[in-house]
Predict the structure.
Amino acid sequence: MKIIAAKDYNDMSRKAANIISAQVILKPDSVLGLATGSTPIGAYKQLIEWYEKGDLDFSQVRTVNPDEYKGLTRDNDQSYYYFMRQNLFNHINIDLANTNIPDGMIEDPQEACKAYDEVIKSLGGIDLQLLGLGNNGHIGFNEPDEIFTQGTNCAVLTESTIQANSRFFATIDEVPKLAYTMGIGQIMSAERVLVVASGRAKAPIIKEIVEGPVTPRVPASILKFHKNAILVADEEALSLL
Ligand code: GLP
């Protein structure tokens, strides 16, 4: 895994946006795997700015998001569907028909996972998958486990993830306990993976990922076996290496 050190959050965001931007310029009909969470917001802001300047064109880009909470409607302001519109899609010239996010309102997990596996397959491969990092090393919503997941699955969120994500909800009880997520196998099939991380809170898990063994107990550790994985992290996130 290639590590690119950034000075701070802004620098990390610009570096990540540069890599995404290069991908879109090199291949205008790229399939971009996008991410939610607070970390990628700065990169999205930068991409929007470059789009407004006329430097980027998203008209042919297709996107696929790794995850969505189970049970949240699309108009719920905590759904990832809502997040992607608010933070990126509403501000660029992407065709919304070309954007894909798991449908959190499908009640039956088997049906939801099968449907999303088909969506991913129909895209014919992800060119660049952007990812944030859970404090416990989760990617998408693939939580620490005994095995690496292959396809889309219904994840049971850990207490630590529920706790971490509760900052966005009015009360911790409102945080969904389940989520649909692309599997680790599907993430590993992306041509390139770009992980972004910022702040001291991510430093312990980055140390584990970089210096520890590859294990499903730390899902992101598998990215060390990816042929083209990049970690862009700021000084604080890299401070324990
Ligand atoms: C959520 C998402 C992840 C994301 C993680 C990190 O749990 N399911 O995809 O990477 O949060 O979020 P943040 O960037 O806010 O630390």
